[in-house]
């Protein structure tokens, strides 16, 4: 629990460190940008991913933007007494809207699709010639949501932290923008 609180405090620490950058930004300076972030999802099975975050290029809505992301966990093989080739696959799709509350601070949120699947083959076969073990595939899909904050540390570096209800944990991201 202490680790989560520490990780949630990172964006606020970044805000404090770059206070001079925030003071120099004017409230009307909402420049459009495209950001590419590398994500780390803290979950039962940690996931790495990528997020594309775009602020709106329309002059009538300069504070709005959107994002899309994909994260995937490492395929895990488990030794199981009743099954051969027992594998677990974990992946997540994220997309949503963002709104700039300050030229360097953006709040975002949206839906999340979390897919968790099991692939396995049983060890038992029928008593016949040329029989093979049966393969099974179970896939679980969970729709949920996330909300977070993205901070422009400098003119080219982004830092993001969000809470994801699909896995009930924190996602941290760092990336670059144009």
Q: On the 0-100 scale, what is the average pLDDT?
A: 81
Major sheet description: 8 strands, antiparallel, barrel
Helix content: 10-25%
Q: How many helices does DSSP assign?
A: 2
General form: elongated
How many strands?
9
Beta-strand level of the residues, as a percent range? over 45%
Which structural class matches the secondary elements? Answer: mainly beta
Oligomer state equals single chain
Major sheet strand order: 1-2-3-5-6-7-8-9
| Element-level helix/strand string | HHEEEEEEEEE
Low-confidence stretches: 13-27
Using only C-alpha atoms, the radius of gyration works out to 21 Å
What is the straight-line distance between the termini? 35 Å
């Amino acid at each position: 629990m202490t680790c989560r609180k520490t990780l949630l405090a990172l964006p606020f620490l970044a805000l404090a460190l770059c206070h001079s950058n925030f003071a120099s930004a004017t409230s009307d300076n909402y420049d459009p940008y495209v950001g590419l972030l590398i994500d780390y999802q803290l979950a039962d099975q940690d996931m790495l991913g990528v997020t594309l975050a775009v602020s709106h290029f329309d002059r009538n809505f300069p504070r709005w933007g959107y994002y899309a992301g994909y994260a995937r966990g490492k395929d895990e093989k488990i030794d199981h007494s009743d099954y051969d080739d027992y594998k677990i696959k974990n992946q997540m799709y994220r997309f949503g809207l963002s709104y700039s509350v300050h030229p360097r601070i953006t709040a975002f949120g949206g839906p999340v699709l979390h897919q968790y699947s099991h692939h396995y083959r049983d060890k038992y076969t029928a008593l016949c010639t040329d029989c093979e073990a049966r393969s099974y595939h179970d896939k679980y899909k969970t729709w949920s949501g996330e909300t977070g904050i993205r901070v422009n540390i400098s003119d080219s570096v982004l830092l993001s932290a969000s809470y994801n209800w699909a896995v009930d944990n924190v996602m941290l991201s760092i990336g670059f923008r144009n």
